[in-house]
Amino acid sequence: MEYLQIGKNWFSNRWNSMYFRKSFLLILFITSIPGIISGIGIYIFGLQSTENELRKVHADEITARAENLDEQFNYLEESLTYWAFEPSFNSQLLNMDFIKEFQETRDLKQKLLVLQGSHPLIKDVSLFIDRNKPVLMSPYLNEIDDQNIQNGFQSLLGLDKNVTWQQPEQFTNLEQYQNEISITHQIPGIVNNPFGAIIVTIDKMNLASILETLTPYSDGVTLLLNENNEVLLSTSNHQTDGLLNNINLSLQSDTSNRNTFQMDWQDKTYSVSYGQFDRIGSKWTYVSAAPISAITSPIVTISKVILIASLSLLLLAFLMTWFASNRLYRPVKHLVTTLSYEHKRNGNARKDEFEEIQERFSALSNEREHLEKRLSQQIPQLRQNFLVQLTKGYLYDYSEDSLRKRMENYGWIIKDHTFILLDIQLTGRYQATRMKEEDDSLVTFAMANIAEDLTKELFQQYTVLNHYDLSAGIFFIVPSETSNLPPSLHTLAEQITTAINQVLGLKVTITISSKTDQVKQINYLFEEIERGKRYREFENQNQIIHLNDVTDIRAEQQVYYPFEIEKEIIQCVRRGRINEAEAFIRQFFHYLIENGGKEVNVQTSIMQLYSTIQHEILHAGMDPTVLYKGRNMYEELSQIRDREWIIRWMVDQVITPYITFIENNMNLEMKQLVDEVVQYIQDHYMEDISLESCADHVGTTAYTLSKAFKKVLAINFIDYLTTVRIDHAKELLLSTNLKINEIAESVGYRHSYFNRIFKKQIGVPPSQFRKMKSNSS
């Protein structure tokens, strides 16, 4: 009873305070009324507007994405029609010997593979030919022995339409086409009596991935129905079969013609939208069901929670507000007591809010000074970021005055000053055997530090830009006193070159730009540097290029390309001779260096050589993207600037993987057989040799040798023999004074036949060829 009276007196003393009463009533109002109003507002207005907006967004997204899916199917149908009219798919396939005419068989397989890879929705492509012994290429050739399978494929030839998505039941009952989505096209495309068909099977996984985009929420489901409302494909799992049936029933009973409706299933509300595709021979319906209750239920729950909590606060607000108001009143009372009675606090007294405000203000002042100090330390980084933004074009819309003002804010003095750029490019890294590729960023960092240490001794305003790719730039702001570049720039370039040679053991190419006094022209200095430094000599030596002294360096360049050496390299690649290929690549480089070895010319020629090798790889039936595991080989090659590095890259990264793959996937004995015959031809081309005689020489049959020749060298035996003889005849025509008939006999031909075959291969008779070459020399 005594404690109750003490508490009552304590509360009474505070309630008599005007400050306490106002604080109490204000907090009570703030904690109760807004919660009730917001809860009711969210429940009444938020739920309905959210549902309407979600349905509208759902319908709009489905329409746009369905049009994209329809366009992909249209493109697939057009592509199939185009291929059905391919001249290769003609009646000659009925009598074609697929074994003997293996080249034509290979071309058919390649065409099917190209069609299969022409569209992401295609899973596989098959070609059925109804001949005496029906065959199926898928893409490999298989004879169809089973009568039921024959009947299934032959049913495609009796369809009224050449191309259709709706196949006969006899075909769809085949094991490999059950539960598959297929489109077929009779061949030839316009003949009433077709003899075959192209069957394209849709990749359900890719199609399902596209269908999933029609439903913007992860809990939704998408259906694809045929004209009989049978499910072709759905993105649902087995747990949602009941949902699929419910959607199908609701779809059939929907008569609103708005292509959208709302349905409930298992305590969830779904927004369902649908539409149709006009497919060849069929009409498909797409259906998308998205759960909007999953989105709106949190809104309902939150609004109810807010409403219940707000009502509860009416009961708890008094007690909570009393504690809060007492806490707010305590520092006021303490301040009044201190001012009135000069009350002295003891050391254990708790801090009031005014003390905390004062201490906080002092802390903020200290923090502000600390931030200002850090900001001054970040000025160099801000300058670098400004130059990067300027060169990338992000500041293109800024005026010259605004850019100048911005530079002045970074501490630059630009009035009566001009801007110059110096580029440093390291070379010879590959020769530095103690360095690894992962050390490039560390080496570049060291080079940038060396450049900065030397620059600060000669210039006041500069910014070092580290590109982290064995190159760096230095941006200078120098007084515009003369029309020429400052002599100290050349001095700095020589000092940087010497320091890097001694410290890093690498060579340096330094390019000095022209100068400009316009901030908006600075990005052109970077472009000028990028163009100009490509005209360095492609030798591992120190170079300093002054672009201000160069009038038109490109006019002095003439491209020399060693085509003959390129042919030798390709021959080595074909025969799998890596060491010989490397030797010829070195000759290739030697030729380029001797005939004006500017980097721009060398890089262009190397790119051309790589393109030729890649063409050879494609000609061999291989995909370079697969062989090199998706690497951007052109990008890698363009970043290499060392001669030896490029040679090793071409040998180790381009040629060796290709030859290794070929050797691992080709009969080694067959390759050795062809190599032995090639050597025999080189030694006896002037004699009367034939395919049979060469086959006897190596102990095999003419057929086996012909097949091996075509597979290994991608050329017929007689064509290769003719090429060897004609090449030797050309050498004799140019290097000797022998008569035409003597040359013909020396390369294994009769005179009259030699003239005809020479003109067929070269385009002109032997005598005219000798005359043309003598006149040109």
Automatic annotation (TrEMBL):
Domain HTH araC/xylS-type positions: 675-772
Residue ranges of the TM segments: 24-46, 305-324
Molecular-function annotations in GO: DNA-binding transcription factor activity; sequence-specific DNA binding
Pfam families assigned: HTH_18
Keywords associated with the record: DNA-binding, Membrane, Transcription, Transcription regulation, Transmembrane, Transmembrane helix
Listed InterPro entries: Homeodomain-like_sf, HTH_AraC, HTH_AraC-typ_CS
Protein name: Transcriptional regulator, AraC family
Organism name: Gracilibacillus kekensis
